[in-house]
Amino acid sequence: MIDNDTNQTAEPSKSELKRTAHAQQALGEQLARLATRHLKTLELPEALLEAIDEFQRLPKSHLARRRQLQLIGKLMRDVNQTAIERQLQALEAPAPSRQEFTPAEIWTEYVIEADASVIESLLHLAPTLDRQKLRQLQRNASKANEKTERSKIRRQLHTYISKYL
Q1: Are 112 and 154 in contact (CB under 8 A)?
Q2: Which CATH class is domain 103-164?
Q3: Domain 14-92 annotated CATH 1.10.60.30
């Protein structure tokens, strides 16, 4: 008579254990391909760091590297894999790029925010600009109350400056 007790948790199958081992080994290989400076930022056990360092020093011999990857996979059993995967994703994520401003955008902001001396400096840089038009746009920007009106004047000024710079 076979007793099927539903209260017991089933042990993972052999195939499931193999899939887990291969996933651990793949994560270990991903770690082994990282630069040393990135490895130091991760919170890894010392034994795993030494195994990865040894992997990186091995020649490109297929068998030796494969055996070392198996050892790394074995050491990965004792590590929180989800935490490491999150840290790897953070390392691989592109850094937020710094927004680069064109000279016309920079001068537009200077003209709007500063006094008439900025207009003189801009005229030395681009003498074909019309002083009167620049001053008029600067006055209109300073008098503008609403955000939409101010942004409209900013666009006009930017368009005008970018034609000549």
Answers
A1: yes
A2: mainly alpha
A3: yes
Tell me, yes or no, if the pTM score tops 0.90. no
Among residues 139, 142, 108, the alpha carbon closest in space to that of 126 is found at 108
| Tens digit of pLDDT at every position of the chain (165 positions) | 455 555 567 888 999 988 988 888 888 888 888 888 888 888 888 998 899 999 888 888 778 888 988 899 889 888 888 888 888 887 776 655 556 788 888 889 888 888 888 888 888 888 899 999 999 999 998 888 888 888 899 999 999 998 887
**What is the SS3 string spanning 21-48?**
HHHHHHHHHHHHCCCHHHHHHCCCCHHH
Q: Name all contacts of 87-95 with Cβ < 8 Å and 24+ positions apart.
A: 87/41, 87/42, 87/43, 88/30, 88/31, 88/34, 88/42, 91/34, 91/38, 91/41, 91/42
